TrEMBL record:
SUPFAM superfamilies from the UniProt entry: Formate/glycerate dehydrogenase catalytic domain-like, NAD(P)-binding Rossmann-fold domains
Transmembrane segments: none
Pfam (any one): AdoHcyase
Keywords in alphabetical order: Hydrolase, NAD, One-carbon metabolism
Name of this chain's protein: Adenosylhomocysteinase
Pathways per UniProt: Amino-acid biosynthesis; L-homocysteine biosynthesis; L-homocysteine from S-adenosyl-L-homocysteine: step 1/1
Keyword Repressor: no
Catalytic activity: S-adenosyl-L-homocysteine + H2O = L-homocysteine + adenosine
Biased composition (Low complexity): 17-36
Region (Disordered): 1-56
Amino acid sequence: MQEFTKFPTKTGRRSLSRSISQSSTDSYSSAASYTDSSDDEVSPREKQQTNSKGSSNFCVKNIKQAEFGRREIEIAEQDMSALISLRKRAQGEKPLAGAKIVGCTHITAQTAVLIESLCALGAQCRWSACNIYSTQNEVAAALAEAGVAVFAWKGESEDDFWWCIDRCVNVDGWQPNMILDDGGDLTHWVYKKYPNVFKKIRGIVEESVTGVHRLYQLSKAGKLCVPAMNVNDSVTKQKFDNLYCCRESILDGLKRTTDVMFGGKQVIVCGYGEVGKGCCAALKALGAVVYITEIDPICALQACMDGFRVVKLNEVIRQVDVIITCTGNKNVVTREHLDRMKNSCIVCNMGHSNTEIDVASLRTPELTWERVRSQVDHVIWPDGKRVVLLAEGRLLNLSCSTVPTFVLSITATTQALALIELYNAPEGRYKQDVYLLPKKMDEYVASLHLPSFDAHLTELTDDQAKYLGLNKNGPFKPNYYR
């Protein structure tokens, strides 16, 4: 980074960063140039596009990318065999016939497999993105070509973000009766703007810490008038997506954006939940010196037993090379922290929301922002110090890289089953509250994925089942197990 700052002119720096940016996107991966292209400055909202069937009920970056996006989806399907298996098993019954699902999730090849599975099971879907940087434009185009009403593109503005959500909900002659959310923004929008629609929703499925927290707040205030399923705290989400997915994708995101070498680097991870545990395991394996901040004494004790030092952020802020937030909270890294960081410190977020790092405080006249490559900004202080900010404080792995398809299959299958359960539940089974997915379903999702590893479960004998007080076919864990 010190060598980088020696370039004599802004032109020199810009040409270097442009060449780096080009090289980092010139491949047909999920982060390919289609997704990152910025040569077309016309907003998708101003374009008139139709798919091959003549429909214009969508808004994406470029419908002509559909063929490329279809190949991405087909590749994802190969590693999502459990979800495809569920689709094939239930396709004849159409358990979601009549369901009108409005969704707000990351729009990637993997979520496209989920969306098309829901459609195959009988649902009508309208979709927007829960993150302004994570949409794969070619995948959104493929969904639009297939007839899904999708409103999303990479690099949306805040106004675009809410416009897309509103286009999904506010439709003449079509009213949603199910919500699939990631972060709670869609639920919040429907609750605030369309209260009459919200009251007629049959169920909400939420998969993020942030969104679940919002649901529990509504429930506690007595304002949640529909049943909701907390998928985030289901075992098949918490112990797999949050842990194993982040263990691999944290390094992918950091390497693609900064080319940093981790051996010997001092890294502080804020939060030692499942996401934090995954990040720390990966960083430690590459030789980084890892510190942890925690508010929860149980998680803090786990960090200590795993060999990490638990500190307050202020104690090490001047010496760390990388700061990663994974708390789901707000103002974890404040302007005061940012002012005290060393030159070239990398700051990023692995939690869902963009509130963990106080990015707004950096948009002041005395600080200079310099875009050096896609999703990488140098924020420059008057004395020349630079802080490297990734994805403007938004979710690193889905904004700057990709995530493992297989682990997303686990989460997507869980979401599909939760929607089927809520939609088909007899009246009275679920009240106006937040529920965890029944453990029987958790175990079913896990069992669907075991054939991928050629894994063979041991079966209890009748005597053993009686001794443990269990049914031979499960569930093997109580509902409170997490």
